[in-house]
Design goal:
It is built from 13 helices and two strands. A hairpin with a 2-residue loop joins strand 1 and strand 2. Helix 1 packs parallel to helix 3 and helix 8 runs antiparallel to helix 9.
Length: 365
């Protein structure tokens, strides 16, 4: 084989390696590899006593390694997507999120079958397909998060600076032996003393990680990246007392689609910060107060200015009590139930905001 053909093969190999190297290292690494390749080719040619054939040049290059593998040796940072330190957290998040998806899918399946919307066999098949799609999407998001964590200059503090009282979220083993662990728990009247069965309280890090998983699942459902047939606002079919609640839900959904995505994304970013910097208590308290205020604002909009307001708003406490009682008394009143839920969201938001501000004030003091 001619020297020109050998040079062409080597140059093609080096060109592929260079394409996957950092720009500031490219020239030095390529020059180093070129010297190594030339030395190996010369040694092999001397050993054989003749010029190398194309397949022999290829064999030498294969001994050095695939261009992607060679380039990876020179790149800074980890050479894996999810490393051994983060893998247990990645696995827990997927399994916990998977159980949430499974529960939501089961609820959607039951609702569709009971309503007679579709044939049970068809509903089951669609639910299984939706669950599979949702789990794949969840794995993708979890892997992306792990990829980002792996490439941070500093490891997240919660990997090494955890506390026992932060472990409440992990108390229930979300694994193949989950049911066995539940069955093995002491029952009332026997086993461990009540004081030994007190569950640890979730605190900053554990609660933040739980919120991230929960909001990721909610956003997957909200955007239909994970679709639960019959359990999405755009698919609700319900008419009661002359009111088409399904049409109202679709109208409200269209109006709040992007605000809910923005709220959920902000919540995930906020909780990610809480997990990385659990000591930033003051800023976390202010953030919690802001999110609670957001819930109050959403409830106020639903009450005063949304398409639902004409059906749920009342102008006096007596009217509110009467409608709430009617709502939760058989045969039940949909408007009363929706009104009660909106009011509870508002009250919870106010209390949560005040509590967060009070805790922030104590930290500052």
């Amino acid at each position: 084989m001619s020297a020109g053909t050998t040079a062409a093969l080597v140059e093609r190999y080096l060109k592929v390696v260079a394409a996957h190297l950092p720009a500031d290292q490219r020239d030095d690494v390529v020059a180093e590899l070129r010297d190594e390749i030339d030395s190996r080719l010369e040694a092999r040619a001397a050993e054989l006593g003749r010029a190398l054939q194309a397949d022999e040049v290829e064999a030498v290059l294969r001994e050095i390694g695939h261009p992607l593998s060679v380039a990876a040796r020179y790149r800074p940072g980890p050479r894996h997507v999810v490393g051994p330190e983060l893998y247990p957290y990645w696995r827990f998040a997927i399994r916990a999120g998977g159980i949430v998806l499974l529960v939501l899918t089961a609820l959607g399946l039951v609702a569709r079958v009971v309503s007679g919307e579709v044939d049970p066999g068809m509903a089951l098949g669609q639910s299984i397909a939706g669950l599979f799609s949702g789990v794949i999407t969840l794995i993708g998001f979890a892997t992306l998060a792990a990829y980002i964590f792996e490439r941070q200059s500093e490891r997240p503090r919660w990997l090494h600076d955890w506390r026992v009282k932060d472990l409440g979220i992990y108390e229930f083993g979300v694994g193949e032996d989950w049911l066995d662990s539940l069955a093995a728990r002491p029952k009332d009247g026997g086993g461990a003393a009540p004081s030994a069965r007190v569950a640890p309280r979730r605190t900053t890090t554990g609660e933040a990680l739980g919120n991230i998983v929960a909001w990721a699942v909610v956003l997957l459902w909200w955007t239909t990246a994970f679709r639960i047939p019959g359990l999405h606002p755009t698919e609700w079919v319900y008419v009661r007392d002359g009111v088409d609640w399904g049409a109202l839900s679709r109208e409200v959904f269209a109006l709040v689609y992007w605000p809910v995505i923005a709220f959920g994304a902000a919540r995930i970013v906020f909780d990610l910060g809480r997990a990385l910097w659990p000591s930033a208590g003051i800023y976390a308290g202010l953030g919690e107060a802001a999110f609670a205020a957001g819930r109050v604002a959403a409830a106020a909009w639903l009450w005063f200015d949304s398409p639902l307001s004409v059906h749920i708003a009342v102008d006096s406490l007596d009217a509110f009590i009467d409608r709430a009682v009617d709502g939760w008394t058989p045969p039940f009143d949909t408007a009363g139930i929706v009104m009660s839920v909106v009011a509870l969201v508002a009250v919870e938001g106010v209390l949560a905001a005040l509590g967060a501000l009070a805790r922030t004030g104590r930290r500052q003091a």
